[in-house]
Amino acid sequence: MEAIIVLLVLAAFLFLGYIMTKKSNAKLKEKGFDPKNLLVNVKYMCGHPDLNDPSPINLGVKDGNVYLIDAFGKDIASIPESQIKNIYVEDSTTIQRRPTVVRFLAVGILAFAWQKKKKSEQAYLGIEWNDGRFDHDTIFEYGGKGSMQRANTARNKLIQQIKKQTL
After folding, report:
1. Helix (H, G, I), strand (E, B), or coil: what is residue 151?
2. Which of 6, 82, 133, 136 has the most CB atoms at less than 10 Å from its CB?
3. Is 26 in the same domain as 69?
4. pLDDT single digits (tens) 24-36
5. Are residues 38 and 24 in the same domain?
6. DSSP-based three-state secondary structure for 52
7. In 3D, which of 101, 96, 153, 88 has the Cα closest to residue 122?
C-alpha cells in the first residue's frame, strides 16, 4: 500500500513538472525566446552591473542581446552582443593551485611545490564586455561531474547563436 502511495506521489510530481515546463516554455516563446536554444540552469556568479547576488538563471539570445532570464521567464539583465569582446571557459583548478597564505607561512617557499590535493569539478563561463565606459567580466558557474564539458558546450552554443543573429 505504501509503495502505491509513493508511486502516485511521484507520478503527481512528474506530471506537475511537465505542466510547469510547458507553461514556462510557452511564456518564453511569447517573449521571443526559443526554449531549445536557451542555456538552462546556469549559475550567475558576478560581474553584471545590474545584478548583485548569485542566482540560477537561463541565458537566451534575441534582438542583438544576451538575456539573463530568471526561473519565472523574466529577463532580469542583458548584455548587448555588439559590446561583447570575448566569451571564454576556465576551470577551478587554476584557482585552487594557488598557494594559500597559511601554507606559505607554514612551509615557506615549499608552499609552491606543496599543492592542494582537493579536486572539485567546477568550470566558469565568462563574458567580457564593455558598456561604453566600463569593462565587465560576467561569470557563470557550472558545477559537478562534466562541468568543463557543459561550460564549453554552452560557450560554443552562445557563440553560434550570436553569429546567427548578426548574419
Report:
1. helix
2. 136
3. no
4. 667 777 777 777 7
5. no
6. coil
7. 96
86 shares a domain with 6? no
3-state secondary structure of 97: coil
Tracing cell 509513493 back to the chain, one arrives at 6
Neighbours of 89 (CB within 10 A): 20
Residues 49/130, Cβ–Cβ less than 8 Å: no
pLDDT in tens, 1-28: 788 888 888 888 777 767 766 776 677 7
Q: How many domains does the chain have?
A: 2
Do 115 and 131 fall within a single domain? yes
39: three-class secondary structure by DSSP: strand
Dist CA 32 CA 53 (whole Å): 26
Contact 158, 39 (CB under 8 A): yes
Give the number of other CB atoms < 10 A from CB of residue 136: 18
Query: What pTM does this model have?
Result: 0.70
